[in-house]
Structure formats: structure tokens, C-alpha cells
Design brief:
single chain; 270 residues; alpha/beta; Rossmann fold; two-stranded antiparallel sheet; 11 helices; 6 strands; 42% helix
Length: 270
């Protein structure tokens, strides 16, 4: 004999299935209306695309994504790989103060335009695409990270620009990965001149001692695996200065994750 409870359970399952079907149809309908009112456009060339927050196939093909083989320490693309982690000549000659760096793509062409638009033209909509790419490039780093911190700005620079692009990316990556975001762990303690056009040695001198971990944040940093987020790694001077401050505060491991990286650090025309 059929149990009354079994009948009730089957009816509940059918009702839930019917509701799911209705939700899917409504979602598709609202999506169609949304695409009509606000069509999905390529973030670079503004041609129509199949999805929001994306590139068209032509622009996507112009992005040079950084994939293995790459330098285990600096994240630079290598021309050939081997067994186990590979270290580039640059990392062997001058090891960075952080443990590992990764970036989604080479800083050139389309991604350069996206980042410049983000930083200087309030193109904040690109943050979601960049954060997705960064999360993919930083999968290994994020796997056992405890904290995500952005490269900070001074208070006066932040007031002038009104946003910190590294913090916006860090917040989005935290949302995607579940790793906690701490925008106040690092502070910038002194203003520095613009880095555009500066040599590697000038950049290092500019940011030496420019960052610190606040006393209130030391307990949150000590013994933790921390990821520093920036938009672009050029010579590594800025993220290196951040890493030194975090190391002094007792961070166990310090990795760096960026949207893009200058493949040849001698090119500092950012």
C-alpha cells in the first residue's frame, strides 16, 4: 500500500520542479528584456557580444594570456618548461621580496587599454572581467590564502581619484574566491612621485619605506598567507615594497596577483 507520506513527498517534488521551470523561464525572459534595454557590448571595441562583462572574439584573441611555462617566483612567461617549478634568470639574479607573483596577461594591446580606461577614465565595469581573469591566473595562490589586501593609496591621492583600482579588484576577487578582503591592512605612509617613465631603480627608490602595516592590523597579518593585489606589475617595485612591510609584520607567505604584467621589466613606460 502506498504511504501517504510518499504521495505528499512526490507532490512536493513536482511542485518544486514546476517552480524551477517557471524561475528559469522568467530568468530567460528578464535576461532577454535586459539585453534589449542594455545590450551586451565588448568592453574594448563596444561591438555586440553574447554576454555582459566580456570581450568579443576578435578582442579576446588580441590578449596575450600568461600560461605555463612561467617563472615560479616572478610569474614571467618562459619560452620552455621542465619538470617542477622553473626559476627565471631574473628571479635567480635578484630574488623578489615576495614568494610568488602571477598575472592574467601581458600588459599590451587590449588589456592595456582596458586597464588605462579603468584607472583614468572611470571604466569601472571592466573590474569584473579583470577579476575573473585574475582569479583564474591566481588559482594556486588563492587555494590556501588567508587574506587579500590591495596596494593602498595615500589619503590625499584617494580623495583626488575617488577610488583605488587595486581595492576594487581585490574586493571582486574576494567575492569570487571567498578569501577575506582587508582594505586597511596596508597603508601608504608617504606620497610618492608618479612612476610613469621612471627606471626600475628610480621606482624602487620612490617606494622604499612607503608602506606599512597598521598596528591594529598586525594580528590579522601575522602568521597568515597574504595576497597583494595590484592592477599591473611593471618592475615589481611597488608590490615588493608592500611585501617588505607585510614581512616585517610577520606574514607567513606573501604572494602577488595582478591583472597584467610587463613581460620585459626594462619597459617602464606605463
Amino acid at each position: 500500500m502506498t504511504d501517504v507520506n510518499d504521495i505528499g513527498s512526490a507532490d512536493a517534488d513536482r511542485r518544486e520542479g514546476a517552480l524551477d521551470a517557471i524561475r528559469r523561464r522568467l530568468g530567460a525572459a528578464f535576461g532577454a528584456v535586459g539585453n534589449t534595454l542594455a545590450p551586451s557590448l565588448c568592453l574594448a571595441c563596444h561591438n555586440r557580444t553574447a554576454a555582459h562583462d566580456a570581450l568579443c572574439s576578435g578582442c579576446w584573441q588580441q590578449v596575450t594570456f600568461i600560461t605555463p611555462p612561467l617563472c615560479h617566483r616572478l610569474g614571467l612567461p618562459l619560452s620552455f618548461g621542465g619538470d617542477g617549478p622553473q626559476i627565471s634568470a631574473a628571479a635567480a639574479a635578484d630574488p623578489p621580496p615576495y614568494d610568488r607573483a602571477r598575472a592574467a596577461a601581458v600588459f599590451d594591446g587590449v588589456i592595456r587599454e582596458l586597464i588605462h580606461g579603468f584607472k583614468y577614465a572611470d571604466r569601472h565595469e571592466v573590474r569584473r572581467l579583470l577579476a575573473r581573469w585574475m582569479s583564474g591566473a591566481g588559482t594556486e595562490l588563492l587555494a590556501d590564502a588567508h587574506l587579500i589586501v590591495p596596494v593602498p593609496m595615500t589619503r590625499w591621492r584617494l580623495m583626488r581619484r575617488q577610488f583605488n583600482q587595486a581595492a576594487l579588484l581585490a574586493r571582486e576577487i574576494s567575492r569570487l574566491s571567498g578569501v577575506p578582503f582587508d582594505p586597511f591592512a596596508l597603508t601608504k605612509t608617504k606620497s610618492t612621485p608618479t612612476q610613469v617613465g621612471s627606471s626600475a631603480s628610480q621606482r624602487a627608490a620612490n617606494v622604499a619605506g612607503a608602506f606599512a602595516v597598521s598596528r591594529a592590523a598586525r594580528d590579522r597579518v601575522a602568521g597568515r598567507n597574504v595576497i597583494v593585489i595590484d592592477d599591473v606589475i611593471t618592475t615589481g617595485a611597488t608590490v615588493g615594497a608592500c611585501a617588505r612591510a607585510l614581512r616585517a609584520a610577520g606574514a607567513a607567505r606573501i604572494d602577488v596577483l595582478a591583472a597584467a604584467m610587463v613581460a620585459d621589466p626594462r619597459r617602464v613606460d606605463l
